Amino acid sequence: MAALSELYGDEHHPGRLNTGLTGTRREWRRQGLALAVKLAALRVARERGAQEVWTGNATTNAPMLALNERLGFRPRVAWIEMKWGGV
């Protein structure tokens, strides 16, 4: 496998699908594969009748931020992750 993009439903939001991990193996990067698999996921979402598609993005991953913006995703209010180190 050279690239993938996850697509999954949200039981609390009917009509909404989410793209999860989108990634490309290092040796295949910069060849348009992330764009291709993300577009394929959006086509499947449309075929399934999704009213909206959401995605997440690390703020440090500039290439994926740019790709998501290119595809029309727009930033929303973020959530806060918290860590407990006592394990």
UniProtKB/TrEMBL annotation:
Residues 1-87 form the N-acetyltransferase domain. Residues 1-23 are annotated as: Disordered. Its EC number is 2.3.1.-. One of its GO terms (molecular function) is acyltransferase activity. The keyword Ubl conjugation does not apply. Keywords: Acyltransferase, Transferase. It is an enzyme of class 2 (transferase). InterPro entries: Acyl_CoA_acyltransferase, GNAT_dom. It comes from the Bacteria. This is GNAT family N-acetyltransferase. It comes from Deinococcus multiflagellatus.
